[in-house]
Design goal:
Strands 3-2-1-4-5 form a five-stranded antiparallel beta sheet. It has a single domain, classed as Beta Barrel (OB fold (Dihydrolipoamide Acetyltransferase, E2P)), CATH 2.40.50.320. A hairpin with a 3-residue loop joins β2 and β3. With 93 residues, the protein is of the alpha+beta class. Helices cover 17% and strands 45% of the residues. It contains one helix and five strands; from the N terminus they run βββββα.
């Protein structure tokens, strides 16, 4: 009997042959950079499917440009939201 799952990975950083990957918005884990599709860069979003059965485990890792655009748009919206009374500058503690 095979088990199937889907995940979203976001590349945080790639250096020294390893990549830090945010998995499903919850945890960050290191993986070997050779596991990533060619051309993947920091900030890229990937769609990952995992099929696991007796004696084998198969990962399909694909870049997801639409999910990356959606994440960037959401981030830009959060950054642009600021209080009407916020003039910027130093924070008073």
């Amino acid at each position: 009997m095979s088990k199937h799952s889907s995940h979203t990975w976001v590349v945080d950083v790639i250096e020294d042959g390893a990549a830090s990957i945010e998995v499903d918005g919850r945890t960050v884990m290191p993986i070997p950079a050779w596991m990533l599709p060619e051309g993947v860069k920091e900030g890229d979003v990937m769609s990952v499917t995992h099929d696991r059965g007796e004696g084998k485990s198969v990962l399909l890792i694909e870049t997801d440009p639409a999910a990356k655009k959606k994440a960037l748009d959401r981030s830009a919206k959060q950054v642009s939201r600021k209080s009407k009374t916020d003039r910027g500058g130093d924070i008073q503690l």
